[in-house]
Design goal:
Oligomer: single chain
CATH class of the largest domain: Alpha Beta
Number of domains: 2
Shape: elongated
Helix content: 25-40%
Bound molecules: S-adenosyl-L-homocysteine, iron/sulfur cluster
Largest sheet: 10 strands, mixed
Strand content: 15-25%
Number of helices: 12
């Protein structure tokens, strides 16, 4: 099923009001916004707490709803700021309940023409995971990944990262007083939120957008607002070694490593960043990841590529390499995309690999591919946004 918003292209006015939405703002952004309206410091603190509650706990979509804020201030907020979300340009719902949204981000400055990112929701019986993007496209070129074929357009801002969760909660009726859509397999029950977990496994390399990602985690995990536990926020990296320890210190989230190979020679081919940060350095960084313990294990992702990295010898070597690191191993069946040079390993091969890992004492769930019918599975995301050519920018400037 695919729903396309017919009004999207016409809403240019909304696109031009860049930078004014308070959705996704940090507490200090909100304080700055209130200061710009002339509020005194002693009032700002109280108002920030109120705005925070309305925006993140209640999911307010208009300043009018904020009844504990006086009318004149509401009017002033209304005049200078918005509570706009990125526009949902398309929503696809897979037969297995996975939902993929294509979001149109308004321009962040005069030069930006706006961008599109994808965001995927994966419901299970006891949890709902939202897979969010950190960049439009990716500068890295892992050979099995569709996103890697899209030229990087830009980093997402902290607000845009947070807005992906807000849009998901809007669409899933996951704010107080809302009703979940009737056509979905959405976890429900006392105290169960439709979105309970977040993984940074959409488009982009989160550690190449470090500050925005860390600040976004701060907003997502704030207990007075969106309230996601940091233990339920996982950041996946292809291995930007120098940023791994700082990530643990600053974001304090869970870590996932896209390993995919046990020898440098092969990993260089699959994840070219390995030439800069080889396996040994990567695993050393994991050993000393701040906060790592048996209760807070690092997830190692391993995509199963037929005849490339899926032999029993490689499974044995994987176990040897991870010795001493509190780890979970996540075997991901390769998701094909148009033009990809790889195939997914046979099911028996995946099972044999998984048995070796399991017998060595690791939980080794094979990640069931979700949303394959709507190209929403790992590594299949790619939006049509391209960098504007110099000529197009010039034309724009002249216009
Ligand atoms: N850039 C980060 C996060 C996004 S990719 C990273 O690489 O970790 C999220 C996960 O999907 C990574 O483990 C990535 O290696 C995996 N992936 C990419 N393409 C895939 C494909 N076609 N099939 C299965 N998994 C894929
Ligand atoms: Fe980028 Fe991750 Fe895809 Fe590699 S796997 S190209 S790092 S998004």
């Amino acid at each position: 099923m695919s729903i396309t918003d017919p009004h999207f292209a016409k809403d240019e006015a909304a696109q031009l009001r860049f930078g004014t939405s308070l959705v996704g703002a940090s507490r200090s952004d909100l304080a700055a916004a209130l200061r710009s309206l002339g509020l005194a410091d002693r009032e700002i603190r109280m108002r920030v707490a109120q705005l925070w509650h309305w925006i993140y706990f209640q999911g307010a979509t208009s300043f009018d709803m904020m009844l504990n804020i006086g009318k004149p201030l509401r009017a002033s907020l209304q005049q200078h700021y918005t509570l706009e979300r990125p526009q949902v340009v398309a929503e696809q719902i897979s037969l297995d309940g996975t939902r993929k949204w294509l979001l149109r981000l308004p321009p962040v400055d005069e030069r930006d023409r706006g961008a599109e990112v994808e965001c995927v929701y994966i419901p299970e019986t006891d949890r709902g995971t939202l897979c969010i993007s950190s960049q439009v496209g990716c500068t890295l070129t892992c050979t099995f990944c569709h996103t890697g074929t899209q030229k990087l357009v830009r980093n997402l801002t902290q607000r845009e990262i947070v807005q992906q969760l807000i849009v998901a909660r809007d669409r899933l009726g996951d704010f107080p007083g809302q009703t979940p859509p009737s056509n979905g397999l959405i976890p429900s029950g006392e105290g169960v939120r439709a979105v309970s977990n977040i993984v940074f496994m959409g488009m982009g390399e989160p550690l190449y957008n470090f500050d925005n990602v860390c600040e976004a985690v701060g907003v997502l995990a704030d207990g007075d607002g969106l309230s996601l536990s940091k233990r339920r926020i996982t950041i996946s990296t292809s291995g930007v070694v120098p940023q791994i320890a700082p990530l643990g210190d600053r974001a304090g989230s869970m870590l996932a490593i896209s390993l995919h190979a046990v020898r440098d020679e092969l990993r260089n081919r699959l994840v070219p960043l390995n030439k800069k940060y080889p396996i040994k350095d990567l695993l050393d960084a994991c050993r000393s990841y701040p906060g790592v313990s048996n209760a807070r294990r690092i997830t190692f992702e391993y995509v199963m590529l037929k005849g490339v990295n899926d032999s029993p010898a490689e499974a044995i070597e994987l176990v040897r390499l991870l010795k001493g690191i509190p780890a979970k191993i996540n075997l991901i069946p390769f998701n094909p995309w148009p033009g990809s040079e790889f195939e997914c390993s046979d099911w028996e091969t995946i099972e044999r690999f998984s048995d070796i890992v399991f017998n060595a004492g690791y939980a080794s769930p094979v990640r069931t591919p979700r949303g394959r019918d709507i190209l929403a599975a790992c590594g299949q995301l790619k939006s049509e946004t391209q960098k504007l050519s110099a000529r197009a920018r010039l034309a724009l400037d002249e216009a």
